[in-house]
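Input/output pair, single chain:
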Amino acid sequence: MKIKPILQETLWFTGCVAISVITALSIFGKTLFINSVDVNLHDTYFVIKKQHLLISFFIIISFFVYYFKEFKYSFSRKIQRSFIFFLGFILILFASLVVQLLPFFNPYQHNGWKVYPPLSLRPELEQIKQNFIILTIVSKAVLILQIATVIMMLSVAYKWGKSKS
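Output:
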């Protein structure tokens, strides 16, 4: 067994981890070194463990890095191809979970939450429209991410099958 390919893959993996940590640090700053990240949304705190943030960033970044890295080999290497498929399936599941959780980020949904102090009707309608637009944009972006992931996985399968015959 050659040491060089194993070392190269270890370096690629370590690079993906480093990029994930740097990305998370640039977004969340020093709060990433605390046990959890608190997101204050209206009158509710969402507490997210730092491991979940880092794993999410790692999955997204690693999928795209490995896809474009293996593109030049026509996805003929078995372990790397399997890693791309594994990360792709996890990314699709993660995006599906995000789409299911998006409605909870709308505090004006009238699902038992009260806005204090009470706002007049006009600003509340404007805020509802603004929140709806933001949630629509985010949900469409996540849907586009899912579609792009599926297309990329299909291209991996096609090129691998084409190279087999």
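The radius of gyration is 21 Å. The CA atoms of residues 45 and 135 lie 18 Å apart.
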